[in-house]
């Protein structure tokens, strides 16, 4: 019976050494739904002493796990992927309630993650090394051969955010495990219940005790403590730039993979297919109420087509269904009141600094309706800061040169989209954009999950994506054979 062990009554447990347990702190954190504020359950507030125990367990378990053949680890991951598919309705229902994600998007998050785990298992089987010959190098007088392979890093501390609790936990767990690492996962507090369900499926699939552990609790008590802990060898973090920078400062010599905030732009040129650009910008700005790192956070329009684009864009945005995630509304409540207050501040600032409000449907507590601002300039906070809500920001420019300048005028560097029917122009502009990925004729988008997802500037460090994540979660080890000359 899946999920029988993860809670008693309304109290969820944490996972250590293959066992679901209550914290000795006897403290819990209530998780309420952003949809109707109902109590969904209570999670454990794990303390620092328990963190020590979890990490020493993970450290011990890692050695044996790494000795298993990769095919055996792949078999377990494949089983986890199957179980996730089998339980997709249960997990999706949890996402709907816990993070107010629309039904179809919740199902997609689970299905996409099952695919990610299976593909990671498959990719792990191709984790081959190489043989280097020394003689081909300048003045290497002896015959030398280097056997170069990949070995696990050790204990990976995975920290995931609220907006994709399932996908962004598993995109760390799966590559870490296939590569022979053990994992201590600290999910975001809002989203933690969904993640506990996932962890149970990995156990059921056969992940041995101690290889995957999940701690829940207050970041103020265990966040820095986990990050600085001597038994952590690598930190894979997804979340805000503010927390990411703090982690980078505290981590010392640990391996780091950081996916942080974004301010993705799309540039719409004069010769673009405007209907396509409008469609992609509507879903880019408003899908999951704009709570995606890769949401379209700036629309950069050449003046000559701006009015035509805006006319179509406003009409399409006006049709979006606002409401409950279980009814599959397009725009659903934000994660909490603070997120909504932050948007209020950005909007007040835009109003005070010359931007033109084209739409602002409503605000009710943590629920914002679709909002559109035109004529946003660098005087406005909306030009610079991540809105993380259903707010479209339109910036008008005179030509392509200015478009590139404005797109690059950001502390962030995830993705930029270019809409044009001139492929040569698209490639030329792409080469000048300071981001990890350029999308031609498409909105910014992380997936498919086998594509590299590179984070530059304040958007992070490193590259994720199935093969790239496995590489990041291994280190190169060489054994050199010195042959008789
Ligand atoms: P967040 O507030 O930074 O939290 C992310 C995670 O860090 C949560 O698990 C949080 O736990 C934990 N945390 C907070 N303080 C910590 C500390 N001192 N030490 C260790 N962990 C700590 O981000 P969020 O609000 O969940 O997510 C939204 C942000 O994530 C946005 O900025 C978005 O752009 C970014 N994001 C980026 C990507 C990407 O791929 N680049 C993808 C998704 C989201 P608690 O919940 O318990 O505080
Ligand atoms: O913000 C989460 C990030 O992973 C975005 O994913 O697929 O919505 O672009 P996606």
How would you describe what is shown here?
Helices cover 40% and strands 24% of the residues. It is an alpha/beta fold and 485 residues long. It has 2 domains: 7-260 and 461-478, Aldehyde Dehydrogenase, Chain A, domain 1 (3-Layer(aba) Sandwich), CATH 3.40.605; 265-456, 3-Layer(aba) Sandwich (Aldehyde Dehydrogenase, Chain A, domain 2). The strands form 9 sheets. Strands 16-19-20-15-14-22-23 form a 7-stranded mixed β-sheet, sandwiched between helices. Strands 11-10-9-12-13-26 form a 6-stranded mixed β-sheet, with helices on both faces. The protein has a 3-stranded antiparallel β-sheet with strand order 7-8-28. Helix 9 links the parallel strand 14 and strand 15. Helix 4 (103-124) packs parallel to helix 5 (165-178). The longest helix is centred in the N-terminal third of the chain and has 22 residues, at 103-124. The model has no long low-confidence stretch (mean pLDDT 97). The protein binds NADP nicotinamide-adenine-dinucleotide phosphate (NAP) and SN-glycerol-3-phosphate (G3P). SN-glycerol-3-phosphate is lined by residues 163-164, 168, 292-294, 445-447.
């Amino acid at each position: 019976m899946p999920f029988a062990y993860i809670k008693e009554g309304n109290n969820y447990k944490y996972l250590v050494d293959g066992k679901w347990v209550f914290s000795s702190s006897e403290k819990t954190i209530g998780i309420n739904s952003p949809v109707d504020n109902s109590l969904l359950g209570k999670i454990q507030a794990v303390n620092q002493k328990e963190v020590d125990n979890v990490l020493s367990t993970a450290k011990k378990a890692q050695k044996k796990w790494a000795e298993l053949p990769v095919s055996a680890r792949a078999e377990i991951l494949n089983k986890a992927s199957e179980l996730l598919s089998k339980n997709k309705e249960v997990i999706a229902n949890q996402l709907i309630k816990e993070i107010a994600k629309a039904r179809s998007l919740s199902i997609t998050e689970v299905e996409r993650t099952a695919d990610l785990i299976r593909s990671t298992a498959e990719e792990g089987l191709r984790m081959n090394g190489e043989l280097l010959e020394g003689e081909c190098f300048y003045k290497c007088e002896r015959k030398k051969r280097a056997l170069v392979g990949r070995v696990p890093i050790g204990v990976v501390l995975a920290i995931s955010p609220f907006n994709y609790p399932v996908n962004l936990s598993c995109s760390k767990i799966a590559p870490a495990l296939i590569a022979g690492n053990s994992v201590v996962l600290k999910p975001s507090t809002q989203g933690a219940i969904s993640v506990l369900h996932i962890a149970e499926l990995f156990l059921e699939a056969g992940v041995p005790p101690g290889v995957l552990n999940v701690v829940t609790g207050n970041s103020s008590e265990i966040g820095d403590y986990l990050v600085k802990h001597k038994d952590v060898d690598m930190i894979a973090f997804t979340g805000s730039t503010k927390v990411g920078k703090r982690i980078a400062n505290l981590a010392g010599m640990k391996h780091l993979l950081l996916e942080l905030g974004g301010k993705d732009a799309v540039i719409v040129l004069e010769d673009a297919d405007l209907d396509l650009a409008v469609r992609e910008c509507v879903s880019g700005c408003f899908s999951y109420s704009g709570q995606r790192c890769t949401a379209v956070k700036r629309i950069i329009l050449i003046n000559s087509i701006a009015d035509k684009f805006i006319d179509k864009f406003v009409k399409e945005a006006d049709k979006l269904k606002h409401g409950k995630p279980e009814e599959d509304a397009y725009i659903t409540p934000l994660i909490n009141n603070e997120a909504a207050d932050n948007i209020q501040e950005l909007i007040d600032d835009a109003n005070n600094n010359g931007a033109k409000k084209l739409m602002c449907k409503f605000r009710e507590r943590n629920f914002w309706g679709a909002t559109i601002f035109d004529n946003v300039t660098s005087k406005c906070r909306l030009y610079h800061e991540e809105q993380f809500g259903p707010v479209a920001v339109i910036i008008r420019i005179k030509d392509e040169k200015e478009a590139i300048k404005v797109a690059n005028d950001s502390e962030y560097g995830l993705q930029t989209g270019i809409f044009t029917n001139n492929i040569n122009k698209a490639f030329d502009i792409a080469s000048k954009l300071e981001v990890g990925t350029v999308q031609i004729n498409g909105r910014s988008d992380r997936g498919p999950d086998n594509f590299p997802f590179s984070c530059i500037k304040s958007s992070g460090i490193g590259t994720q994506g199935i093969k790239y994540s496995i590489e990041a979660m291994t280190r190169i080890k060489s054994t050199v054979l010195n042959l008789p000359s």
